[in-house]
Amino acid sequence: MSALSTFLLRRRGGASWHWTDVLAYIWLGVGLVLMFGPVLWLVVSSFKTPANLAEFPPTFMPLDAQVARVQGYEQPLPLFRVTLEDGNERVLAQVRRVGIMAQMVDPENPGAVIRVPIDKRVPVRQVKFATENYAEPLQQFDFLRYFQNSIFVTVMATLITLVVNSMAAFALSKYEFKGRTAVLGIILATLMVPLSVIVVPLYLVVNSLNLFDTLWGVILPTVATPTGVFLLRQYMLTIPDELLDAARMDKASEWQIYWRIILPLAAPALAVLAIFSVMWRWNDFLWPLIVLSRKEHYTLQVGLNAFSGELNVQWHYVLSMTVLSIVPVALIFLFLQRYITAGIANTGLK
Amino acid sequence: MSTITEVPGGQASSLSSMLALPFRFLMGVLNAPMGAVQRRFGIAGMGAVFLAPNMLIFSVFVLIPVAINLAYSLTGGTAIFFDDRHFVGLEQYQTLLMCGDYAAPSTCLQDAFWQSVHNTAFFVLVQVTMLVLVSLGTALVLNREMRARGFWRGVFFFPVLLSPVVVGLIWKWILQRDGLLNAILLDFGFERILWLAERNWAMFWAIFVSVWAHLGFYALILLAGLQAIPRDLYEAAMMDGTGRMRVFWRITLPLLWPNLLVVIILALIKAVQIFDEAFVLTGGGPGTSTMFITQYIYETGFAHVLRNLGLASAASILMGIVLVGLTALQLVVSNRRARKEAA
């Protein structure tokens, strides 16, 4: 403890404490609780049995009643710690409950039935992670399908985004042609048109193309991102034109120049766009909510929302599936945090 | 050709080169057809060819919808296709804007719309203020000399990556009747509160959760701005014995101001469109007390049995006008910043 406190209280150059130092530590401490707490609570809760979840006040750790097999009884019986009339405490198994009395037996000596008032007993419980919360919905419900749909949408949309955006960015950064400024202007202008403004007409377009209630109807409207074109174009502008000229001297076709020179050199920018595209598409909600109507086409986000909006919310399933849906994002965050934060700081991308 | 293939591909690891394999194959397959295209259009024409796929998708799914949006808002009926829609002129806008008293949504013809406008205005005002203050505070704290800065940055940043649905569900779980927060409250001897069933509390939590989810993003932009402020300015101030508060007001804040402005406008643009988290958290309720404009558009156009696409379009165009104004402002501001940096 003392090592920890000296570590925490050590000041660079032995400078004295200023009130802003205190404030900063309070900020960090409160931040840690407020930011991590809810997610921690979600994860812990997702491992609780329905009975444990319904308890109020809630327990922190997932607890489950301990049971014992007792000779002469088919079902395993729940164990209780009982305070007997003579003041002794014993662990007994409950056979059944009648009104305010419980009939209990000693697991060691199951012959004699002991009658105990129910307020004189507390369940014996142990920490147990209800992994069935994860296993069951994956088998009984369509969650696996939602997962597949989400992965399909995310992967396809990101691939197409990378290809068409990089091609467009290549054209806009390395070619002179009529109307280039106009195209740039139009793309710039549509940066201002967020999806929420055009959902209504987009619905008509997707309907006319027979894409309603299909995953392609979710994918295609999102792939020609103006943000991506801009990001890649700004990056490609820094690639020297001499490289292209040299390649043309070597009789490389324009297509070869694009994918053998431009794409490898733009890899850092492509990586940033790929990461963001994956996050955008994985988290998309409003548009899939509108386009997808049949349950088997739902993406994870729409499925989760539908599932949590049901009359009798099965929280033990909703929580576990929410945790599962975070896993890919958490992995991306762990491994690519550096790129993500750099991408945001440099471009203001979100 | 050998000279070209040897162009270094950055610091590509073996994993990423493996992932790029199918991609390379695809590109290789396209070699021959693209060569034919080039013979047809010439090198100069290839620019348009490269631009074509993106612009095609872009036109179909962005440009044309913008035009259709206008057409929808000028026609009536519940049909999706235009054959069964009739021209009504500005009637949809009149319906939306007809109001006895704009301060009291219940006197309006479309009281739900005006309620959502009021809610959104309140939300934008409070959420953006809180968001900017909290992310500024976080950025200032993260910019200090400290251990494990990467960890702390992650603590504040990670909710940005969570989906709005997940964010909504996490907090719905905590705020429900028998949730964690009520347990803590009862533990301290207070009464239980139905957080999401009382008007003011529901709005409070919609704002709180939205700040929680997004503060890391803006803190990161501000942190980058703080780190760009030259160290010697602070050192000079230290030499002069300037107090910390004075340094903050006289050096940090003025030099951070361009970033702060970008953050404010970005936050405004996002806040006007608020939908997902609030929708999952409160569903717009209780009643319509946390219904925002995007939800109004969604419900009017899609969720109701009577799909009033015209009304929804008109509402989305009105919202679009506000957003275009804000975005234009942002472009002006960031252009000015870029020019200043270049100078």
Explain this structure to me?
The complex is a heterodimer of chains A (350) and B (343). Chain A folds into 2 domains: 67-123, SH3 type barrels (Roll); 141-347, MetI-like fold (Orthogonal Bundle). Chain A is built from 15 helices and 8 strands. The longest helix of chain A is centred in the C-terminal third of the chain and has 33 residues, at 315-347. Chain A is an alpha+beta fold. Chain B folds into 2 domains: 10-73, no CATH class; 99-342, MetI-like (MetI-like fold, Orthogonal Bundle), CATH 1.10.3720.10. The two termini of chain B are 42 Å apart. Chains A and B meet through α2, α5, α6, α7 and α8 of A and α1, α4, α6, α7 and α8 of B.
Largest sheet of chain B: 2 strands, antiparallel
Helix content of chain B: over 70%
Shape field of chain A: elongated
Q: If classified by CATH, what would the architecture of the largest domain in chain A be?
A: Orthogonal Bundle
CATH hierarchy: architecture of the largest domain in chain B: Orthogonal Bundle
Query: Averaging pLDDT over every residue of chain A, what do you get?
Result: 84
Strand and helix order of chain B: HHHHEEHHHHHHHHHHH
Q: Note the total helix count of chain A.
A: 15
The domain tally of chain B reads: 2
**Name of the CATH homologous superfamily of the largest domain in chain B:** MetI-like
- What is the overall shape of chain B? globular
CATH topology of the largest domain in chain B: MetI-like fold
